[in-house]
Design brief:
mainly alpha
């Protein structure tokens, strides 16, 4: 497969409002999580604190911790713009899978709305993963940078 064929497939997307809605909302929801990890906004620990937690407490290799931060912060911004939608959605989807396996599965399905559980369940992660999968399959849809590039 030539690089132009690969690029065309990566960026191709229908003129469809569904992926637009999904990518913008997923990007908006993921942005604060990425900003916590990278910038320390919204009560987060910033890049150094997050990397320390990932590597020292969770024993995650630094490269995977770094990629998680990049996926959540830059991936969320890229989703809002519809730029490299499939790549961004893939990164966020992987982060959701890892979060479920390493932290949230042991807490059960439900989120801890009432503060009664030991931790948060994984229902939120399933929804984010589902949106990611739709975007991987469909692309960015209407009003995406991907569509503008693919149409040029």
């Amino acid at each position: 497969m030539s690089s132009s064929t690969f690029t065309r497939r990566l960026l191709s997307t229908p003129d469809d409002i569904g992926p637009l809605v999904g990518r913008v909302l997923l990007g908006i929801v993921m942005f604060p999580h990425g900003a916590q990890k990278l910038l320390g906004w919204f009560g987060g620990y910033g890049f150094t604190g997050t990397m320390g937690y990932f590597t020292d407490v969770m024993s995650i290799p630094w490269i995977f911790g770094f990629l998680a931060i990049v996926a959540e912060f830059f991936g969320s911004l890229a989703l809002v713009a519809g730029f490299l939608t499939r790549v961004s959605a893939f990164g966020i989807g992987i982060v959701m899978i890892v979060a479920v396996v390493t932290v949230h599965a042991q807490n059960g399905f439900f989120m801890d709305w009432g503060g009664q559980l030991a931790g948060e369940g994984f229902e939120y992660h399933i929804l984010a993963l589902a949106l990611s999968l739709v975007l991987i399959l469909k692309g960015g849809g209407t009003l995406s940078v991907d569509r503008a590039i693919a149409s040029a």
